[in-house]
Each structure stands twice: as C-alpha cells, then as structure tokens.
UniProtKB/TrEMBL annotation, chain A:
Residues 21-84 form the RNA polymerase sigma-70 region domain. The keyword Transcription regulation applies. It comes from Novosphingobium malaysiense. PANTHER family: RNA POLYMERASE ECF-TYPE SIGMA FACTO, RNA POLYMERASE SIGMA FACTOR RFAY-RELATED. InterPro entries: RNA_pol_sigma-70-like, RNA_pol_sigma-70_dom, RNA_pol_sigma70_r2, RNA_pol_sigma70_r4_t2, RNA_pol_sigma_r2, RNA_pol_sigma_r3/r4-like, WH-like_DNA-bd_sf. SUPFAM superfamilies: Sigma2 domain of RNA polymerase sigma factors, Sigma3 and sigma4 domains of RNA polymerase sigma factors. GO terms for biological process: DNA-templated transcription initiation. Belongs to the sigma-70 factor family. ECF subfamily. This is RNA polymerase sigma70. Residues 111-162 form the RNA polymerase sigma factor 70 region 4 type domain. One of its GO terms (molecular function) is DNA binding. The keyword Transmembrane does not apply.
C-alpha cells in the first residue's frame, strides 16, 4: 500500500508549525551566534533536522521549544566541529541592526547587541531563551538540557552582567564586552 | 543624515527621555525591553531569499 505518497495531514500540520517558528529560530540563532549568515544557515539546517525527525514530535506540544533545542544542539556541534569561536567584533559590525531614527529610548540596539555578545555563552543562551523568547525557566532548562535552578542562576547572572555592561560608558562597554 | 549612530557622545542625546537604564527599581530595566526589541526585530524580518531552498525542500519532501 503506497500510503506515503499522499502527504499525511500530520505532515502538513507539522510543516505549517515548523514554518511558523522559523522567524523565532532566526532570532534565537542570531542572538546565539552573533552572525546573521551563520545564523540563517543554522536555522535551515535545524529545520531540515526537525523535519526529518518529525515522527518524534508529539503534536500539541511546544514546537518552538522542540525546534529551539534542535537548533541549539546543532549550533553547539557546529561550534565544536569548526572549533570556531564566533568573532565578536566582526559579527557585531556585520549584522548591525539599523533602527529608525525615531526609535524610543536611549538604549541603542547595537549597544544591546554588543553587550549580549559579550556575555558568557551559557548566560547569553539563558537570557535569550527567558528574557527574549519568553520561555519559562522550565522550558528553557529543557531546551538547554540543564536543571531549572541552573537556568535560573544563569539568567540572573546574565541580567546582572547586562545591567552592568549597559550602565558603563560606551568606551568602557567596548573594552568590557567580552 | 542625522540618524543616531549608536554612540552616545555626551550621555544626553537630544529628544530622548531620561536614561531608563538606571531605573531598575521601578520594574523592568531598559535593557530588558531592549533585548526583546532586538530579538523581535529579527523575528519581524521577512525570511531572506536564502530560505527559498529550504521551503522548497519541505514542499517536495512528501514524496521523497
């Protein structure tokens, strides 16, 4: 019975959900890696992995969390494989997000980004998951494969680091961002 | 043009409200919304052309 020729409703639903999380995956990958092009490669590769592994996804659970975990693991293995630590300065210059002149508030996004990239990787990941993506501590801990208490303390440290960095003068920010 | 370039020369940029980054006592610090803004600015971007291949792959993969 050539059942699989016909796209199943489950596959169709999965595809829709996967497509809907792509923008979030891009934002997460960009935040993690600090590089727009590398991030987009990661997202595409992670999306293919997710699609290939779709049998393992339980419909009705959290597609965003599931794919974030795939993306994160892929990112870490790419880092290990390439032995390439992201080059912070190049990254920041390349992917500078241009904000409109009428942006509100005194905090410029490029400063924010520099500060973010200056965090220790596991803290950056933590604050991206909880502070930016809006995951609960529990979900974030699942994604990062760590205990919830560890996630909480990473987020707290990331927050303290960011607050400290962003309260410095711009020059000190540059020097201190590492 | 005279668009802010991200450097804060003397701390007080014309037209900007007082520095909210220091007002951590009243709830959320300024950087917290900055972080979300940064993140959301990427979420809101349209998918770049480089994603066309991926989308096509997902479309084709049913009968693969």
């Amino acid at each position: 019975m050539p059942e699989r020729i016909k796209p199943s409703a489950a596959d169709e639903a999965f595809r829709k959900e996967l497509l809907s999380v792509l923008p979030h995956l891009r934002a997460f990958a960009r935040g993690l890696s600090g590089r727009a092009d590398f991030a987009d490669d990661l997202v595409q590769e992670a999306a293919i992995k997710a699609w290939t592994a779709r049998e393992r996804y339980e419909p009705g659970t959290n597609m965003r969390a599931w794919t974030f975990a795939i993306l994160r693991n892929h990112y870490l293995s790419e880092l290990r494989r390439n032995k390439r630590q992201t080059d912070i300065d190049d990254g920041v210059a390349e992917r500078m997000l241009v904000m409109d002149a009428d942006q509100e508030g005194p905090l410029h996004l490029d400063d924010m980004e520099t500060a973010l990239q200056g965090l220790a990787p596991e803290r950056r990941e933590a604050v991206l998951l909880v502070g930016a993506s809006g995951f609960s501590y529990e979900e974030a801990a699942d994604i990062a494969g760590c205990p919830i208490g560890t996630m909480k303390s990473r987020v707290a440290r990331a927050r303290a680091d960011l607050a400290k960095t962003l309260n410095q003068e711009p020059d000190a920010l540059k020097a201190g961002a590492r | 043009m005279n668009q802010p370039n991200g450097r804060k020369h003397s701390g007080n940029v014309k037209g900007f409200p007082p520095d909210v980054r220091k007002s951590q006592e009243d709830g959320e610090p300024g950087w917290a919304s900055g972080l979300r803004k940064l993140y959301n600015s990427v979420v809101d971007e349209p998918l770049p052309d480089s994603f066309q291949d991926l989308l096509k792959k997902l479309d084709d993969s049913d009968d693969a």
